[in-house]
Amino acid sequence: MRILITGANGMLGRTLQRKLAGFTLIPTDLPEGDITDETKFDALMAKEKPDAVIHCAAMTAVDNCESNQDLAFKLNALGSANVAAACSRYHARLIAISTDYVFDGASPRPYHEFDLPTGGATVYGQSKFAGEELIRHCCPNHVICRISWLYGPGGPSFVHAMLKLADGSRPELKVVDDQRGNPTSTLAVADALRGILERPLLAGTFHLTCEGEASWYDFAREIFRQRGIEQKVTPCTTAEFPRPAPRPANSRLEKRMLRLCGLPPMPEWREALAEFLKSGL
Predict the structure, then answer these.
(1) Which GO terms describe its biological process (predicted)?
(2) What is the CATH number of domain 2-154+183-212+252-267?
(3) What is the secondary structure of 221-233 as a DSSP string?
(4) Cα–Cα distance between 256 and 261 in angstroms, integer?
(5) Active site includes 124?
(6) Per-residue confidence (pLDDT) for residue 280, from 0 to 100
(7) What pLDDT, on a 0 to 100 scale, did the predictor assign at position 74?
(8) Span 178-205, average pLDDT
(9) Sequence spans of domains, the chain
(10) Reported confidence tier of residue 111, pLDDT bands at 50, 70, 90
(11) Are residues 96 and 146 in contact, defined by beta-carbon separation less than 8 angstroms?
């Protein structure tokens, strides 16, 4: 199977290149893999003729999306439409990466795949939701995979940031304790994507976050525990660290579609973290 990866130089794209052994991979990124140029991307698809496209390319800097709204929609919405339309024209299956930010984060329970997203309160979430809708419209043969709280080899990620901050120069770290989500390793996501690739008839929307939940405070403490680092961590509120883009209080995603389709469950988040730390940063 020939698989073209957009955004292949990003954290997930790099992991996919490591983990998807056995497939013929076509990693693309800027400038040759410019998803905002429909003519250039069409020519790339015509040349490579992939059986499937894993669409990772996106503008994911949440705060920057607020100040660069046109660029966010150009990359996350229009870019996704260009990829989806090209996949439809060249009969390639599309597996697109999305985010928990398509939800508003106000639910008292984890979101499952049949909850209706709204785009939430951020430009990032709204642009990614617009991208999802354009994918559904332009390419029937698609799988949308939502992920969140992602970390992986090479970073950048929360794990890398915490380990850098715990350099012995700070007696205390304050970490937000009123946002909850599913810390998720790119290694676990890559394994799940392999399972989806091996089931060519699957379609629809899947959540691919690790099992179990934590706050950022919980996550930080577990990182330090597993690394054997003595670092004082103090919980704080979101209000103490205001950001241009509001962070959702609830980023938890239920993996209902994995269960319904008989796919393996995602690993528990602490186990996935341990595997990542052993494999190298």
Answers:
(1) dTDP-rhamnose biosynthetic process
(2) 3.40.50.720
(3) HHHHHHHT----E
(4) 9
(5) yes
(6) 87
(7) 98
(8) 98
(9) 2-154+183-212+252-267
(10) very high
(11) no
